[in-house]
Amino acid sequence: MKKLVVLVGIAAVAYGGWTLQHRTHDSKRNIALNRFWVDHMPANERDPFNVFVAHTPEGMGGFAEETQWHGQIERFRFDMEGNVMHAVFPWPARTRTSR
């Protein structure tokens, strides 16, 4: 019985360490994903600013150039391979790879 308890304890510590290491690695790798990025806060209502968003569960994102009153967005689909994002822009039918 003691051997089983020790074995379960070792397995739990190993799993916890692996999970913590894996989570830390993912957070560093995916800093651009699942966030709303704005290049600067607009100085006035006509000051244009750029927006970037990439959402992982759906694999969709977008670039936008906006003011307080007007905006234009270009959406894309993407896949991740390690630290590389492969984006497909269906409207103009082009592909882009980014690191």
Question: Number of helical segments?
Answer: 1
> What structural class is derived from the secondary structure elements?
alpha+beta
List the secondary-structure elements in sequence, H or E. HEEEEEE
Low-confidence stretches: none
The outline comes out as elongated
Report the strand count.
6
Residues in helix, % = 25-40%
Largest β-sheet summary:
6 strands, antiparallel
Mean pLDDT equals: 78
Q: Termini separation (Å)?
A: 51 Å
Strand order of the largest sheet: 1-2-3-4-5-6
Rg calculated over all Cα atoms: 21 Å
Q: β content, as a range? A: 35-45%
Can you tell me about this structure?
With 99 residues, the protein is α+β, with helices and mostly antiparallel strands. Helices cover 28% and strands 39% of the residues. It is elongated. The protein has a 6-stranded antiparallel beta sheet with strand order 1-2-3-4-5-6, with no helix packed on it. The longest helix has 28 residues, at 2-29. The model has no long low-confidence stretch (mean pLDDT 78).
